[in-house]
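Suppose you are handed only two things: the residues of a chain and a line of SMILES describing pyridoxal-5'-phosphate. What would the bound structure be? This form records exactly that question and the answer produced for it, so the two can be stored side by side and reused later without any lookup.

QUESTION INPUTS
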Amino acid sequence: MNLNDSTTTALKNDQHNCWPEAESVERFRANLAAVNARIAAACARVGRAPSEVRLLPVSKTKPAEVVRLAYAAGVRIFGENKPQEAHTKWEALCTELPDLRWSVIGHLQTNKAKLVARCASEFQALDSLRVAEALERRLQAEGRGLDVFVQVNTSGEANKYGLPPEEVAAFLRELPSFSALRVRGLMTLAVFSDDAERVRRCFVVLRELRERLRQDAPSRISLDELSMGMSGDFELAIEEGASVVRVGQAIFGARATPDSHYWPSGALETEKAKPSEDSTA
Ligand SMILES: *Cc1c(COP(=O)(O)O)cnc(C)c1O
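ANSWER OUTPUT
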């Protein structure tokens, strides 16, 4: 590698080197074993049992053939950020692999609730009553239930999805009336930063919020689960109490699609900066 490359390029190449594309069942076995070993080591550091942490492999951008390889290596539930992509892969694989399940971990618009109600067994990004209502209606129609996590914005960044921590208690109080939604816990995305202490702070916020809310959680609302941590930060998340880690690149290989495609890092700011043309139209 050219040492004169900019830091960004160097970092990217670095990521590609440490996360090569997984193209065989053996490679998936090896990657899963490596991630599980890191999970076990993180657990050991804080006296937790590895069985307290569920690894959720995230297959976004990877085609159904690749999901099949990961399935052959033992994976039975996959995370997908986009409801449409989850639904497409579910359709492609549901007959062939009936025990394969899908967890939708990204923002949902009400007009996509039907897709999630049909194909997902878990939804980790609940952050509005409108979405809860849309899901409830579609789930009733499908005769299904759904495990859900409430997404919390723990970084305070305006461009992150999720409820501000101070709004979660009131939100939880509304959820028992949605009988198809089984609330399991909270989910967050930490700040994207090289500063481990800033990242850790987000995980601490989620854990402390859960401890506070647990004391008088409405009946039927369980807050046992904390979904936090991704390829770059899952060990910190485990040290702070994660029960689910959502890991894509460290298992599947680096993604070409930038993260801004999944959470609007620059997009919202651009929208705000742009003069509102449609209001004058
Ligand atoms: C893609 C994604 C992940 C996994 O990110 P990696 O960097 O691939 O580990 C975790 N959570 C959400 C919500 C995602 O969209």
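WHAT STANDS OUT: The CA atoms of residues 25 and 69 lie 5 Å apart. The two ends are 51 Å apart (CA to CA).
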